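Hello, quick one for you while I still have it in my head. No rush at all, and the record is pasted right below.
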Amino acid sequence: MNNPELSIVIPLYNERDNLIPLEDKLEAELSKLNLSYEIILIDDGSVDGSAHLIESLQKHNPRIRLIQFGHNHGQSAAFSAGFKAARGQIIVTLDADLQNNPADIPLLLEKMQDYDVVCGWRHKRNDPWIKRVSSIIGNAVRNKLSEEEIADTGCSLKAFRRECFDKVKFFKGMHRFFPTLMKMEGFRVTQVKVSHHPRLHGESKYNIRNRLFSSFLDLMAIRWMKKRQINYDIIKED
């Protein structure tokens, strides 16, 4: 395939039961766009046979590409590998658990006419109450300390121009701060309301315990980077 116009980048870990309905939904929606596209699935060390199923899907869908890790390295590593492999001019990310709806991808692409990054905002969450409350608190603290106004940084449904990744440094936990990192490089960032659906298969990989401490450390690093960012205005240069 020649370089497509659109790359769909999806990290996954033990999502075998979601993969067939995910492909069906993606193909149904992407086929309406009149754009060439590829679907990059990054298997982050799954042990449930996800990679084997993806290889079966590839036999009838040449648009699917597989990146398989030997061990579980985390969502940031999976995103990083997917971004480096992506060939499209616009890169769309989403989760493999079907809580993000592929039907919302056109909402993001419409905004790309005026912006470089479009972030999905799950304004009506379909998660257990403890997860909803922790997300509200986490977003509020994150926005306060990083001086941001993004309502839902945890939503994986986002769209980027590929040049957004030319200068951004990748690190563990980076996926929580994409809007801030992109703004620091001068890119235009906005958000759009998207739908959110309950998980039907598999288990969530995140909880308060495995996110709180590492997220706070990453937030402090981002805050330091913003405070120490070099800015200047040149009024003359001969």
